[in-house]
Design brief:
homotetramer, 198 residues, mainly alpha, Arc Repressor Mutant, subunit A, Tetracycline Repressor, domain 2, 73% helix, 0% strand, DNA-binding
Chain lengths: 198, 198, 198, 198
DNA sequence: CATGAATGAGAATTCATTCAT
DNA sequence: AATGAATGAATTCTCATTCAT
C-alpha cells in the first residue's frame, strides 16, 4: 500500500498544475517567449512559488516535456505490446497518438519546440524524440523479419512514418473540426501499407 | 527595361549578405538565441546598419526565411513543371529538396523554427509553409484526376508526404555521411507509390 | 526575587539558540549571504519561528551581535576591574580578548562585518564598538593621570591599540596553529609599553 | 609616443567614472547593498552601459577595489623607496596613507568590505591586503637586520602596526575636523618607536 | 506556539533598438 | 550611409516576510 502523506499529494498537485500551466503558456507563446511570470499567472501562483518546485526555468520546461512524452510513450507502448500483425499495430499506434494529442492539444507545440534545442535551453530533449523513432524502427524491423513488410532501412522508414503521421495529427489539433479519427488512420495506414499507386 | 542604379545594386547586396548572415547565425544558435549583434558581426556590418535595411529583427527573420523558401519553391516548381507522370515528378521533387538542403544546410534550422511562430516573432511564416503543402496537394489532386494514383484527401496526403520526406532530408543534413541521395529518394518514392506490404 | 516561569525559560532558550545559529551561519557565509532559511535550519526551527522572537532579520543580527559583544565586554571589564598597574591590566585585557575569540571563533566574522553597517542593516552596531574604544580610552586616561604612561590623546591611542591587537587576535583565529597566546600578548604589550626602537 | 585614439580616451573615461561612482555608492550603502542601478545613476549612465565596460557586478567591484589599492600601494612604495632610517620611513608611510584616504574618503569603506569576502563576492580581495602586510613586514625585517629595531615576529608586528594606524586613518575620515595630520603621525610613530611607558 | 508554503519586491543581466557622430 | 555606444524594457531568479493550518 503506497504511503502518500497529505504533503506529497499537495506537492504533486502543485508540480502538476505548474507543469500544466507551462504547457499551456508554451503552446500559446512558443518556447522562448513563455516567461516564468506568465506561467506563474497561468498556474495561479506567484513567480517565486515555481522555484519551490523547479530549480530553474530549464528544469521546468524539461520536466514538463518529459512528463508529457512519457505519457505518450506509455500509450504507444501499450499499442505495440500485443502480438497482433503489423498493420493492426500500426493502426493502434496511430490511434494512440491521435488520442494523446486530442487530450493534450497544448503539447504539440512544446513537442515541436523541443525536438531540437533552441536558445537558452542547453539540454536538448532530442533523446526522447530519438527514442521514439528507434522504438518504431524496432517494430518495423521485427515486421520485416517476419516477412510482413518489405525489407528496407527501418530507421529511415520510421522517421518518414512518424513525422508524416505527426504532421497529420498536429494538423488535426489545429483544425476546428477535424475529420473522424478513423479516416486519418485509414489514410496513413493505407498509404504506408499499400502505397498510393492506382 | 528596369533601370538599376548603382545604389540599387549596393542595396541588394547588403540585403542579401545580411540575410545570409542571419541564416548562418540562426542555424548555429537557433532562432531565439540568434542576436542582432552576432548577425551583424557575421555580416561584417555594424548593428545599426541592419536597421537601415530591415525595420526590425522580425522583418529580418521573416525576409530571410522568405528568400530561402522562395528559392526552394522555385526548384520544386521546376521539378513539377514537366508533363512527366506522377512518379517521376515525385522523384524530381524529392531530388530538388535534397539538393536544396544540401546546399543550404543552415536553412533547415530556420525552416524548423519558422514553420510555427516562436518567441518574439509575431507574424508567422506559416503561409509559405502552407503554400508548399497546397502546391503538393494540387499535384496530387491532378494525379488523382488522371487516375495515376488512388483518390484520397490530397491535402492530408501532401502533409504526410512533405513532412515525412522533410524529416529524412533533415536527417541527412545532420548526418556526417548520409547515404547516396538516390537511396533515400527510392525509399520514399517506393513507400509512397507501392506501400510497404510484402 | 524575579519569578521565571517555564515560558520565560523556553523563550530564553529559543532566543539563545537562534542567536547561536545566526552567529555560526554568518561566520560561515558572511553577513549578507547568511539567509534566514539557513539560520533557521542551523537552529533547528522553522523560518517562521524566528519571527516570533525577532521582529526581522535586522533585529536578529543586531541582538546576536549585542549578545556576543556583551560577553566580550564583561570579560574585558573583569580584566580591568583590579587595581593592578597598567601593564598588568593591558596583558589581562589582551588575554581576555584572545580567550574570547578562541571560544567564539565564529564571532570574529560577525564582529568584522558589524563594526560598520553593511547592506540591508540600517542600524549600525557601531555604538557597542565605540563603547569598547571609550572604555579602553578611560583606562588609558587613568594610567596617564597616575603617571604610569606618557600623556597623549587617549581615544586615538585606544583605537590604535584595540584595532592593532584585534588584527592579531583575528589572525590567530584564521591560523591553523597559532603560536602560544603568551607570545602574542608579550609582543603587543612589549611594543605598546616599550616601543620597538633598539 | 603612446598611441591613444579618441576611443581609448573615452573608454578610459567611462571606466574611470563608473568605478568612481561604484566607490561612492559602496561607501554610502556598503558592499552588498550597492546595486547596479544606483551605481549607474551615480555615474549618470544607464544600467546596461556598465555591462559594456565590466563583465558583471563582481568584476566592477574587483576592478574598483584594485584600482584604488594600486594607487595606495604606489604611494606607500614611494614612501618606502628611500634609504632613510626606519623611523623616517614609518612616518612617510603614515603620511602617505593619511593623504590617500583624505583624497579618497569613500574608499575606506570599500577597503573594509573587501578585506574579507562577503556574500556574492567569490574572489576575495584579501591577496592585495595580505601583500600590503607582507610589504610592511619586509621593511620591518630589514630594520631588524640593520639593528634599528628590536627583533620580533615581523608579520605580527606589521599586522599590529597597519591595522592600528588604519583605524586612526579611518577615524580621521569619519571626523568632521580631524586634528593636524602631523599630530596623528607623531602619535603613532611615537608609540611604535618608543612605547608609551613613562 | 510552531510551521513552512506562498508571496512579491527587488537584484543582476541581456539585447533589440536608437541616434549622435 | 554607416557606425557602435548608450539605452532601458524585459527576464530570470532570490530571499525576507507573512499567514493559514
Amino acid at each position: 500500500m503506497p504511503v502518500r502523506s497529505k504533503e506529497d499529494v499537495v506537492q504533486e498537485f502543485r508540480v502538476q498544475s505548474i507543469q500544466d500551466a507551462a504547457m499551456r503558456v508554451i503552446a500559446r507563446r512558443g518556447m522562448s517567449a513563455a516567461t516564468m511570470q506568465e506561467i506563474a499567472e497561468e498556474a495561479g501562483v506567484a513567480k517565486g512559488t515555481i522555484y519551490l518546485y523547479f530549480r530553474d526555468r530549464e528544469e521546468l520546461v524539461e520536466k514538463t516535456f518529459d512528463g508529457a512524452i512519457t505519457e505518450l510513450s506509455g500509450r504507444i507502448e501499450t499499442a505495440l505490446s500485443s502480438e497482433a500483425p503489423f498493420d493492426q499495430k500500426l493502426r493502434a499506434v496511430l490511434s494512440a497518438e491521435i488520442g494523446f494529442f486530442r487530450e493534450h492539444r497544448e503539447f504539440f507545440r512544446l513537442y515541436i519546440s523541443l525536438r531540437r534545442p533552441e536558445g537558452r535551453q542547453k539540454r536538448t530533449c532530442e533523446p526522447r524524440y530519438r527514442a521514439r523513432i528507434e522504438r518504431m524502427a524496432a517494430v518495423l524491423r521485427q515486421a520485416m523479419e517476419r516477412g510482413e513488410i518489405r525489407t528496407m532501412d527501418p530507421t529511415r522508414l520510421a522517421l518518414f512514418l512518424i513525422e508524416g503521421s505527426d504532421a497529420i495529427v498536429i494538423e488535426r489539433v489545429l483544425q476546428e473540426e477535424p475529420p473522424p479519427e478513423q479516416e486519418d488512420i485509414d489514410l496513413i495506414a493505407g498509404v504506408i501499407l499499400e502505397g498510393i499507386r492506382q
